[in-house]
Specification:
Structural class: mainly beta
Number of strands: 84
Shape: globular
Distance between the termini: 68 Å
Oligomer: single chain
């Protein structure tokens, strides 16, 4: 053991056993013990597999002394004969000492061996077998990635097929649908991965009617079968191991299974036992034996991408030249497979994976080389430093340099690939997976010189050929002689470094898929990454929604009315929903339309044959419920115009028409928020036309009547269906209209609690955050420290705290040891102002954000424990020990998209009160457009430094007039941009994650010039963003993120925007996804070719660009023309360059060229904004009635009513004017004093109001 590079202890159990636990102990009375180890298992003692826990962790915890016994129970038992303990860490003061004990039991095994040309047929007693329920179970092992394990079919179109395909298990199942039989429309359900690893895998299929559960090892898929039937009808027989062709024994339709099966049961019938006892129900095709004699193909694993290699000597070749054959599998897109030095010198041959393709390169003297890619069928000749084409069946792939490879030949898909390399007849031929070979023509015969290096090499000749290969190799032949890897392991053959023998330690990191919300998983040998494009989410695991949670949230960041996508549960399971946000009123309304916007006329309906209309909204039922429950109030208008059409039966009061709520329950009230009252709005308001009835329509008159109501009981909204049942009498008619669902307010934004005792806290149920969790909230305090949030497990924990007056700390432990992520602010955080905190942890990384400071990231270990296991309650504002509690206010606490109701829980908790004192703690938005509300001793002020707007409440547009020579250049300073980008670069996180590349751009403009340059952002790395108006006046957005590629160009508006009108542009990028909104149109999504970040931003320029930039020709033309017109409220991320130009003219950050005049063009926004026009009752009724020439009586009534209303309004206006003038004179003397008190009311008065609720309470944070 002392001389072994990787010592191990092997245990032979003498027979197959089911192992459930292992225990270890150190050497008796010594300082020798093993503190951690790996556990490998094998059936034969040759090919081994590493045991991994359910969370993918393969390392076992060992001993801390020599005497104590440490037992590790296996989360899933293994059936094996051999166990191997591989020490990883041991006592640094001693040496390795190991005593082991294995726990388990024996089990009975029925085995069958299929040689790839055989099968077992289970024949039914009758012509066909029809089953409603099926249970099939088996275990199998194989070294081939393809093969049919089970098949059965029926004449009516039923079939069931279970087969290995590319190392996965596919199940095809169809019930009574002949169209899908052996057609291209067959769809498989796939489970598992890397199942061709020569180790046992268990399969369990359960079917009841159309519901199916397919389980492979510990991975389960639930699905519903195709077809119309509920039973599976199979004719004559079931086939195991292949699909034999009827009438042709030994001939099969598909590739047969080659491997072993064990304990094969079909609906309780032991198939292998029947075959072994030669029962007549079983017919054997080919050679099926009843012991597993499959050869074990021994592999080795290359562990390091920088230092792994295997050096093997070459054997003499009788025919001259040399040949190499081997098999490999990997996930990595790049890696060195083979390096051979050649004679005559200094030629060398390199076989490598590059960009997922296989390339063979012959390096000659100097820089000359010949290169061929797999499956290109290209022959090349090298002579006197020139590369000459000889033959080419695919000439378009020939280029100077690297040849392209067909997409179908990706070799980093985790499957075994065979490679054959041969030099003979003045050719080097490369064959991959039996495909047609590629060749390099030689001028002279080449011989190998020295050793063959596999996977990498230690010599200086190939050190630059990085990275080394990470993956598995097996069946290595040199000059047609097999190489025994056991001899290499024992040091008797060649040399090696960073290799693991007797096992292929590959794992599928995308099984299960840890990318959330439909993100696509891709992987390398040591990590995985998620492609979030098109999902509406971002982050390392597609956890974070790119949309705001409500229209209220869009208003707070400065958005105007328009169509938006909102995600009401943030990172939760619900997807984004498209809504209209109406921000023209003081309240922000969220509007969700449905499929029936026009009034509907009904005639001829009765209770027996009612008129039914179902309403489909632009959101799912779950999303609707989330929007309604998260709003302060919701309402939906119901309009019912009637003529001899009643809503209630006048005799017994039973409803004749009704509507269904969102749960499908029948409701018969037609207005208000009192669901138990079967009345209309006129009854609640006591203004029905006939007070003997509760509804106007129940008077049952021959003239038109109207019952209009606004439904506002949130638990019943929205209306999902309406039923009209009384329009079948002579002269009966009804016209109804259901308005859109309208909600306002966001209950979570200002949901707050105040903590005024250090021992107080709020408690909630345990966090459900095993794989991912995001925590966000606002706080304000005057205390120097305190715990915001804590949740404990047996060993795991998660905590967010104010660790010092200027630092927030996020700490957790998922079993890999405590992780601490701290963010320090250059300003104190205990300044009694609101501060924002967001902490996130997932299986890839952890992050922490405080206010607008750059994000801090910390990468998770690739093979560490991924699951956070918590057991205690969640403590908010304190800890379980009632120490280090938080003193201050917390609001808007959200965890994984779920908002916590702090106010309700605070009502029943001593030491905590609902709400938070202060002007900046209310639900009214005192500061707009990203403005920050700051408490003062006698009021508040708005900090507009982060906003593109000005004024006392950050709601005044900042506008500037430009001419063609004008420009404003904002130079980014180190604390903002460079620091932000460097922090992103410095974090050792995979660049494939799209979570950090993002920009937010917003501005308004008025111009008649075209072409014109609106805005450019450039970096020190020649990257740029440009927003221009083209020659036809259309908007163009240019993104040049990778200097070696052409820029991406998008034209979201093809119409002419140089029309002298005000236009508002919003651009938002997350990774590859680009979202653009023009005016109030719906957001348009585009996809960039790269998700690269802007590295080291240099400057942002508005108007003419005088600096020579590496722009495209069209961008350069617009840049030289400049901009003539008005720009308003320009915002780039958290910088407002136009505002900085006006307020900091002497600053070194701002450079102004040409005339620059402050303007008021932004004020036009209100007059040119378009609001959503609700379909009101009057408009729809007028359209319906005046368009009908037969309703002349209604026209007369409408005219009279209109005249009366007009006269009344005029009279009311005159009276209001007189009263206003009289009261204005009375108030003129005191208006200044009242205004002063309304804005600067003493802050301590607010405190006094809170103190009246709890006498003798001490405030620590004001």
């Amino acid at each position: 053991m002392v001389t072994d590079q990787e010592p191990w202890l092997q245990v032979d159990l003498r027979e197959q056993m089911e192992v459930t636990a292992v225990a270890t102990q150190g050497r008796y009375d010594s300082w020798d013990w093993v503190s951690s180890y790996l556990l490998l298992y094998s059936d034969t003692g040759r090919a081994w597999k590493q045991y991994r826990h359910e969370d993918g962790v393969g390392r076992f915890v060992g001993n801390v002394n020599s005497e104590a016994v440490v037992q590790n129970k296996l989360s899933h038992p293994v059936r094996t004969r051999f166990l191997r303990f591989v020490p990883r860490d041991w006592n640094p003061s001693g040496w390795m000492g190991l005593r082991v004990e294995v726990y388990g039991c024996s089990y009975k095994s029925y085995m069958a061996d299929f040689d790839g040309r055989s099968s077992l047929l289970y024949r039914f007693n009758q012509k066909s077998m029809s089953t409603v329920k099926d249970v099939i179970s088996l275990r199998f092992r194989s070294h081939q990635a393809e093969g049919v394990l089970l098949h059965g079919e029926g004449q009516r179109g039923d079939y069931i097929t279970l087969e290995l395909h590319q190392g996965r298990l596919d199940l095809y199942l169809n019930l009574d649908d002949s169209r899908l039989r052996f057609s291209s429309g067959r769809v498989a359900v796939s489970v598992g991965s890397l199942l061709d690893d020569q180790h046992w895998h268990s399969v369990h299929i359960e079917r009841f009617n159309k519901q199916v559960n397919l389980t492979v090892d510990s991975h389960t898929q639930h699905f519903q079968t195709k077809g119309e039937g509920h039973s599976l009808e199979v004719d004559y027989e079931l086939s195991f191991g292949g699909i034999p062709l009827p009438g042709k024994p030994g001939t099969f339709l598909r590739k047969n299974f080659h491997g072993c099966m064990e304990n094969l049961y079909y609906n309780g019938i032991n198939i292998i036992d029947l075959a072994k006892r030669r029962k007549p129900q079983i017919h054997s095709v080919g050679n099926v034996t009843f012991s597993c004699s499959q050869p074990q193909l021994v592999a080795c694993t290359f562990l390091s991408s920088s230092s792994s290699f295997l050096s093997l000597p070459s054997a003499a070749s009788a025919t001259g030249g040399f040949s190499v054959r081997f098999q490999f599998r990997t996930w990595n897109p790049d890696g060195l497979l083979l390096f051979v030095q050649l004679s005559p010198e200094p030629q060398r041959l390199v076989l490598q994976i590059s960009n997922s393709r296989l390339y063979l390169t012959l390096h000659s003297s100097g820089r000359q080389k010949s290169e061929v890619s797999a499956a290109t069928s290209v022959n090349l000749a090298v002579h006197s430093g020139r590369r000459v084409e000889q033959t080419c069946s695919n000439p378009e792939t020939l280029k100077t340099g690297v040849n392209t490879t067909p997409t179908s030949h990706r070799v980093n898909n985790g499957l075994w690939h065979s490679v054959s390399l041969d030099t003979k007849n003045l050719q080097i031929t490369l064959t991959v997976d039996g495909e047609p070979s590629s060749a390099i023509e030689l001028w002279e015969q080449l011989e190998s010189r020295g050793n063959f290096y596999f996977g990498g090499c230690p010599t200086t000749d190939c050190q630059h050929l990085t990275p080394a290969f990470q993956g598995c190799m097996r069946l290595i032949f040199i000059n047609r002689q097999p190489k025994d890897l056991n001899q290499a392991q024992q040091g008797l053959l060649g040399n090696y470094n960073e290799l693991q023998f007797d096992t292929c330690n590959i794992r599928d990191r995308c099984l299960p898929n840890l990318c959330e919300h439909g993100g696509r998983c891709s992987q390398t040998w040591s990590s995985f990454s998620c492609d979030c494009s098109g999902t509406g989410y971002s982050g390392a695991t597609c956890h974070n929604s790119i949309y705001e949670s409500s229209c209220e949230a869009y208003k707070l960041i400065g958005s105007s009315s328009g169509f938006y996508s909102i995600d009401p549960d943030g990172s939760g399971p619900l997807g984004p929903t498209q809504v209209y946000c109406n921000m023209t009123e003081e309240k922000v309304w969220t509007v969700l339309a449905h499929n029936s916007t026009a009034p509907v006329t009904v005639q001829g309906s009765s209770l027996l044959k009612p008129h039914i209309m179902k309403f489909n909204y632009s959101a799912s039922a779950e999303e609707l419920q989330a929007i309604v429950s998260g709003s302060e109030q919701c309402q939906q208008e119901v309009v019912y115009d009637c003529k001899r059409s009643r809503l209630f039966n006048t005799k017994d009061g039973s409803p004749l028409s009704w509507w269904l709520d969102r749960e499908g329950e029948r409701r018969s009230y037609w207005g208000g928020f009192l669901p138990g009252v079967q009345q209309c709005s006129c009854s609640l308001e006591e203004n029905c036309m006939d007070m003997n009835y509760f509804c106007n329509c129940d008077a049952d008159t021959d003239t038109w009547a109207n019952d209009t109501g606004v439904l506002s009981y949130k638990d019943h909204l929205p209306v999902s269906q309406i039923v009209i049942g009384d329009t079948n009498r002579t002269g009966s008619q009804a016209v109804y209209h259901i308005g859109p669902l309208r909600c306002y307010g966001d209950k979570s934004i200002w949901n707050a609690a105040s903590f005024y005792q250090e021992s107080s806290y709020l408690y909630f149920p345990t966090l459900q955050a095993e794989l991912a969790s995001d925590i966000s909230f606002y706080f304000k305090t005057s205390a120097p420290s305190g715990v915001f949030l804590e949740n404990l497990g047996l060993k795991d924990f998660i905590r967010v705290e104010l660790s010092s007056p200027s630092a927030v700390t996020f700490s957790f432990d998922v079993g890999n040891g405590p992780v601490v992520l701290s963010m320090k602010s250059h300003l104190p955080l205990n300044d009694r102002q609101w501060h924002y905190v967001r902490a996130e942890r997932n299986v890839k990384e952890a992050s922490l954000q405080v206010d607008q400071l750059p994000l801090r990231f910390l990468e998770a270990p690739a093979d560490g424990h991924p699951r956070l296991r918590l057991s205690s309650q969640l403590f908010v504002g304190g800890t379980a020990s009632q120490q280090r509690g938080f003193l201050g206010c917390i609001r808007t606490l959200t965890v994984n998209g779920v908002s916590f109701d702090l106010e309700e829980r605070a009502k029943m908790t001593p030491g905590v009160s609902s709400g938070c004192p202060g002007y900046c703690s209310g639900s009214s938005s005192l500061c707009h457009n990203r403005g920050r509300c700051i408490e003062k001793s006698n009021g508040y002020v708005c900090d507009c430094s982060q906003s593109a707007y000005g004024g006392t409440t950050c709601d005044q547009e900042v506008s500037v007039s430009f001419d063609m020579e004008s420009s404003v250049t904002y130079t980014f300073q180190e604390p903002f941009s460079v620091m932000q980008n460097r922090s992103s670069q410095a974090s050792s996180v995979s660049t494939e994650s799209s979570s950090r590349a993002r920009e937010d751009v917003a501005f308004s403009f008025v111009t008649s010039q075209k072409p014109a340059m609106l805005l450019t952002v450039s970096t020190f790395n020649q990257q740029y963003i440009a927003v221009i108006l083209a020659k036809n006046g259309s908007l163009q957005i240019w993104y040049h993120l990778q200097t070696d590629r052409s820029p991406d160009v998008f034209s979201p508006a093809l119409n002419n925007l140089a029309d002298g009108r005000l236009h508002r542009i919003r651009i938002h990028r997350v990774g590859k996804n680009l979202y653009v909104q023009i005016d109030q149109d719906i957001h348009t999504k585009y996809t960039l070719s790269s998700d690269a970040e802007l590295i080291l931003i240099r400057s942002l320029t508005l108007g003419k660009v005088t600096r020579r930039e590496n722009f495209n020709e069209k961008v350069m033309e617009a840049a030289s023309k400049g901009f003539s017109g008005c720009l308003s409220s320009v915002q780039f991320n958290h910088v407002a360059p136009l505002k900085a130009a006006l307020t900091n003219r002497g600053s070194s950050l701002v450079t102004i060229r040409g005339p620059l005049v402050q303007s008021n063009c932004g004020a036009l926004a209100e007059s040119t904004s378009h609001t959503l026009q609700d379909q009101t009752v009057t408009a729809n009724k007028d359209k319906e009635k005046h368009g009908n020439g037969t309703q002349k009586d209604l026209a007369v009534i409408a005219g009279v009513v209109t005249a009366v209303v007009f006269i009344a309004v005029c009279a009311l206006a005159v009276i209001s004017r007189l009263l206003y003038q009289q009261r204005r004179a009375q108030r003129s003397s005191s208006i200044k004093e009242e205004t002063r008190h309304s804005v600067y009311t003493d802050y301590r008065t607010e405190l006094h109001l809170h103190n009246s609720v709890r006498d003798n309470m001490k405030e620590y944070y004001i």
